Amino acid sequence: MSIIDAGFDRDSAAVPRCVGEDQEVKLFSVWCPLVLAQAKKRIPPQIESRSIVIQMDRIGPGEHVDHLRPDRLGHLVDLNRRCVRWVADHLAELKAADPTMPAGLRSRRIDKWRGLLAIADRVGGEWPEIARKAAVAL
Which pTM value belongs to this model? Predict the structure, then answer.
């Protein structure tokens, strides 16, 4: 869990490890977005405080969900390319953004929602309101 815990902030997301014959200590970056799924147990509090938790339920009687096949994701390639391009085109303004936070968010909750709210504000339309409602609800 220490690697996951260390990966929250890009500027300080590094863990020391000994490498090579001389066991030289080197820092390794561990920053990255991460998705964790866990049945029944809760994740440790220090990880949960840095997370956006989405409760999931089992499929109920009569419900149907299409299976996601890892070998059949070709239809998502164009969407991925377009998302990467959009971020590249707007990266400077997203980094500089200081979105208005909904009442009740503070500390780490602000940290974890800042980027998502900046994206919602940039996209516009109904997304800023939807994102802020989600931030409060989640």
Answer: 0.74
